[in-house]
Amino acid sequence: MAFHEVRFPANLSFGSVGGPERRTEVVALSNGFEERNTPWAQSRRRYDAGVSLRSLDDIALLIAFFEARRGQLHGFRWKDWSDYKSCAPSVAPEFRDQQIAVADGIATVFPLSKTYASGGFSYVRPIVKPVEGTVLVGISTDEQVLGVDFELDLAAGRVIFAEPPDAGEAITAGFEFDVPVRFDTDVIQTSVASFQAGEVPNVPVVEIRL
After folding, report:
1. Structure confidence at residue 189 (pLDDT)
2. Do the Cβ atoms of 121 and 134 come closer than 8 Å?
3. Are the C-beta atoms of 186 and 205 separated by less than 8 Å?
4. What does the pLDDT look like over 68-78, one tens digit per residue?
5. For residues 164 and 108, is the Cβ–Cβ distance under 8 A?
6. Can you tell me the distance from the alpha carbon of 57 to that of 48, in angstroms, rounded to the nearest whole number?
7. Is the terminal CB of the chain with fewer CB neighbours within 10 Å at N or C?
8. Torsion of Cα atoms, 15 then 17 then 19 then 22, to 10°
9. Global pTM?
10. Radius of gyration for the chain, computed over Cα atoms and rounded to the nearest angstrom
């Protein structure tokens, strides 16, 4: 099993159905109360790539991509059009978008992340597949220069500074990102007749942990 650093055609993922999935175990007690717990620290995303197929050319492109990944065997990048930026969907990323760490004066490597906050609570999502050419990094109020102040590990979503930032400095970043996924089936069933009649194949895609 390997991960292919290639993105599923963005024009085919546009319009797809999907989003985050959680696993919660709910136990109903005899007194009517509930106990709730989750074995997952991180959410997992699922999508249906078949919804956005519009033509037989789209089917051909899907099949070529599916065969090159050997079905479920190899992972790939997926653009989630509803959530692919460090900021709001309507604006461009800036280096102040997300605080990813507070420097300790020793560490030089910092993983990218995105924080989802609501009602005083938050969830920090690891970002492991940033998009090349979109990542902006800052230390407190100063934007850093790629290739001079820091380098990027695009395969793992890590910022690598040339020198350790001073202790107490806020490390911030803005970026676009993909979701690491694989096909959740080893079978793609298509019919020219049914497709022309408006039916589309079911092509499940699921996020993988790296």
Report:
1. 82
2. no
3. no
4. 999 999 999 99
5. yes
6. 18
7. N
8. 180
9. 0.92
10. 20
